[in-house]
């Protein structure tokens, strides 16, 4: 299981996004960024986030 902690991306947010693949996590993170933080995800943001995805 791969996880991404929103707080690790610099947000004051306790959301933890989980998925089987990095792509799945990034897709869910993009939706979360738009809906919760009002951020339009970019390929550059996805690349940055890929470095903080952890294997649990």
From TrEMBL:
Q: Which domain of life is it from?
A: Bacteria
The record's listing under Pfam families reads: DUF1059
Q: What is this protein called?
A: DUF1059 domain-containing protein
